[in-house]
Design goal:
Layout: H1 3-19, E1 23-25, E2 31-33, E3 40-45, H2 48-66, H3 73-84, H4 88-97, H5 104-116, H6 118-128, E4 132-134, E5 145-146, H7 149-159
Parallel strand pairs: 2-5, 3-4
Antiparallel strand pairs: 1-2
Length: 160
């Protein structure tokens, strides 16, 4: 990817994040973006084998938010551990993570990873952008924002 396009993506992602400031708190503590909402799958939970990979990232994100830390070593470590993982369960966890606001820089890195292998990521993105599977630990994710932004940016990149 060209550096200019990545810089433009950073700006676009930040603008979308700012526009997402209009949010509503779900009963379980997740924050639902009003400007870029993503539906929650009513009858579908994330498979346990995938949830196990995603859980450390989202729990450390929630802890960082509760502590008002913009940068957090535990979150960064958990995030990059997930990004380094390979295999179908890891790919599914990485795509599932796209439904959560992870921070502008981390969001770019997640998109970059997804762009490296469209053959594996496209079917997952198509499925996950429709609705976000529920997690068994959502009650522990107070302050974490749920939105469709990364799926939209991914789609826009491949449509243009």
């Amino acid at each position: 990817m060209k550096p200019v396009k990545l810089h433009m993506l950073t700006m676009a992602f930040c603008l979308v994040a700012l526009a997402s400031a209009r949010q509503t708190m779900a009963a379980d503590g997740l924050i639902m973006s009003e400007s870029h909402p993503i539906e929650t799958c009513e009858e579908r939970f994330l498979p346990p084998r995938v949830e196990r990979l995603l859980k450390p990232v989202l729990l450390s994100r929630a802890a960082a938010i509760r502590s008002n830390r913009e940068w957090d070593a535990a979150y960064e470590s958990a995030f990059y551990n997930l990004l380094k993982m390979k295999g179908p369960d890891a790919r599914e966890a990485q795509v599932a993570l796209m439904a959560y606001y992870v921070g502008a820089h981390y969001g770019e890195e997640l998109l970059e990873l997804a762009r490296t292998d469209p053959e594996q990521f496209d079917p997952l993105v198509r499925r996950y952008r429709l609705c976000r599977p529920q997690l068994t630990f959502e009650d522990q994710l107070s302050g974490v924002t749920v939105l469709q932004t990364l799926y939209k940016i991914y789609d826009d990149d491949f449509e243009s």
